[in-house]
């Protein structure tokens, strides 16, 4: 019998509604290879985290069940990327893979000059060696810690000009990663002569993977031009940023991710890139710019620090895989799968009432530890405490983006408690399924439910001067 859908149909006395359901959106890929992961007991994890001095970076990865430490270099490459590896040209100079990579980068960004580096911080090191000197100021939106490190280690200042709203995790704004144009303009008006350049991080990792709007990028460009300054995009997650512009900003819904990315870069003078994120490779990075003088300046540092100009710290095969990865990850379906998964996890946390930086960003959930562990004083590092509790609960490894990461003030040597204290749960690209998301959500719920009983945190017993969070050693406060 032929039944017309979406119509009321009568079978004698029976009246029933037949509806066409909206099709769910599944992943834009299928799985060809899998990797075994092991579970563990709470007793094992309690011992392991103690052995690791309560620093999750110090845990051997085999002691982790679901690894949300970072989305950096942890993505799954596609079959096309693995195929490209085999075609890599390992020539020391003039590698074909370099030229292929350069062509893709120029096509996506409009930047003609490209220098490969072994990862993002190496790109910063090479370019900033040319651009940053003692006493300089580099305004930006919540500089990532390596970016800040490369500025501060040169005795310059990383001036945070992020919009104040970013600090209120419960406020819903579409572009919470934006630069506060008034703060930027003030910095330029007062200290323009000291400003080396402006750096805009897309997406804004430290503020919670929050995007920057095209409007904001245009405004930064306008102010930069007014004061004769140049702009660098810290582009680790530029494709995710483009996705948010497409889905949230008026006028971009019908544009492709590639068109949006190209427009984003049109407002910048150059970029540093950690290819381990939106390039979906396990290692790699690059500098790209439209200015010959920046290229010439950076070249001088690339050779001694990274390697010859056509490999700069990368294997030929890795450059080949990166060229494919950049192309693939600037297609809508790939980004849509990824960001929907992060949004799925966020929706589970909403069910349980767990507070995180809203609306959820592109690569991670940032749980607001201050709102969860209200009994743990900030001097005892609530976000780190929450990270340890979550690990003990289910072997889920997150990362503190908070007071430990913030390091000490370089002048006063006091801990910096002015920023946010978040537990970041990064989602690796194309690696976990939504069942893993459910484990993370339920584990966090269990910790959340007993939050009132967590009254003490941790104290630092050993630390380094810069970027202490990787190696810091802690002890529980009883
Ligand atoms: N810029 C941003 C915005 C980053 O998130 C990172 C790295 C870098 C630069 C440095 O790149 O690691 O390739 O040297 N972020 C990682 C993270 C480590 O976990 O967020 P890298």
How many H/I helices? 15
From the helix content, strand content and strand pairing, which structural class follows? Answer: alpha/beta
Question: Level of helix content?
Answer: 25-40%
Radius of gyration: 23 Å
Number of strands: 16
Spatially, the strands of the biggest sheet line up as: 4-10-9-8-7
> Uncertain regions: pLDDT < 50 for 5+ in a row?
1-9
Distance between the termini: 72 Å
Query: What do the pLDDT scores average to?
Result: 95
How big a fraction of the residues is strand?
Answer: 5-15%
Shape: globular
Summarize the biggest pleated sheet. 5 strands, mixed
Bound molecule types: ligand F0G
Quick take:
The protein is α/β, with parallel strands linked by helices and 478 residues long. It has helices at 42-51, 79-86, 96-109, 120-131, 145-152, 181-191, 214-226, 238-248, 257-266, 292-305, 316-328, 332-352, 369-372, 382-394, 434-449, and strands at 8-11, 14-17, 66-67, 113-117, 137-140, 157-160, 198-201, 231-234, 270-274, 285-289, 364-368, 396-397, 399-401, 422-426, 458-462, 473-476.
Overview of this structure, please?
The protein is of the alpha/beta class and 478 residues long. The chain contains 15 helices and 16 strands. Strands 4-10-9-8-7 form a 5-stranded mixed beta sheet, with helices on both faces. The protein has a 3-stranded antiparallel beta sheet with strand order 11-14-13. Strands 1-2 form a two-stranded antiparallel sheet. Helix 4 (120-131) packs across helix 10. It binds ligand F0G. Ligand F0G binds at residues 70, 72, 119-121, 144, 146-147, 201, 205, 234, 236, 274, 276, 285.
């Amino acid at each position: 019998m032929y039944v017309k859908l979406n119509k009321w149909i009568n079978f004698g006395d029976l009246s029933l509604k037949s509806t066409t359901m909206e099709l769910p959106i599944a992943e834009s890929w299928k799985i060809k290879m899998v990797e075994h992961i092991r579970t563990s007991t709470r007793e094992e994890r309690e011992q392991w985290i103690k052995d690791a001095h309560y620093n999750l970076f110090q845990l051997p990865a085999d002691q982790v069940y679901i690894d949300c430490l970072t989305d950096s270099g942890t993505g799954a490459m596609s079959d096309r990327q693995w195929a490209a590896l085999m075609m890599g040209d390992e020539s020391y100079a003039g590698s074909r893979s370099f030229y292929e990579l350069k062509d893709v980068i120029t096509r996506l960004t409009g930047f003609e000059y490209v220098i490969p580096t072994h990862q993002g911080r190496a790109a910063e090191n090479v370019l900033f060696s040319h651009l940053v000197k003692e006493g300089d100021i580099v305004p930006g939106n919540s500089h990532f810690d390596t970016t800040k490190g490369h500025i501060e280690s040169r005795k310059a200042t990383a001036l945070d000009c992020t919009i104040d709203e970013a600090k209120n995790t419960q406020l819903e704004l579409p572009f919470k990663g934006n630069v506060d144009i008034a703060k930027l303009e003030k910095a330029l008006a007062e200290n323009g002569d000291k400003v080396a350049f402006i750096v805009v991080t897309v997406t804004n990792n430290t503020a919670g993977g929050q995007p920057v709007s095209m409007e904001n990028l245009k405004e930064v460009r306008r102010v930069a031009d007014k004061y004769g300054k140049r702009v660098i995009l810290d582009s680790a997650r530029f494709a995710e940023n483009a996705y948010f512009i497409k889905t949230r900003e008026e006028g971009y819904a019908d544009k492709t991710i590639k068109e949006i990315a190209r427009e984003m870069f049109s407002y910048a003078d150059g970029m540093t890139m950690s290819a381990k994120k939106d390039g979906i490779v396990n290692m790699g990075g690059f500098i790209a710019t439209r200015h010959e003088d920046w290229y010439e300046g950076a070249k001088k540092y690339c050779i001694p620090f990274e390697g010859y100009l056509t490999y700069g710290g990368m294997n030929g095969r890795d450059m080949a895989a990166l060229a494919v990865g950049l192309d693939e990850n600037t297609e809508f379906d790939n980004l849509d799968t990824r960001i929907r998964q992060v949004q799925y996890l966020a929706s589970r946390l909403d069910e349980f009432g767990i507070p995180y930086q809203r609306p959820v960003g592109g690569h991670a959930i940032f749980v607001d530890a201050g709102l969860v562990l209200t009994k743990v004083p900030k001097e005892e590092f609530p976000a780190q405490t929450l990270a340890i509790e979550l690990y003990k609960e289910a072997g889920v490894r997150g990362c503190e983006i908070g007071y430990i990461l913030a390091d000490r003030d370089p002048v006063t040597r006091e801990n910096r408690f002015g920023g946010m204290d978040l537990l970041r749960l990064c989602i690796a690209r194309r690696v976990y399924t939504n069942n893993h998301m459910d484990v993370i959500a339920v584990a966090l719920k269990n910790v959340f439910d007993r939050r009132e009983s967590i009254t003490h945190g941790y104290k630092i017993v050993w630390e380094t001067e810069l970027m202490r969070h990787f190696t810091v050693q802690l002890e529980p406060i009883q």
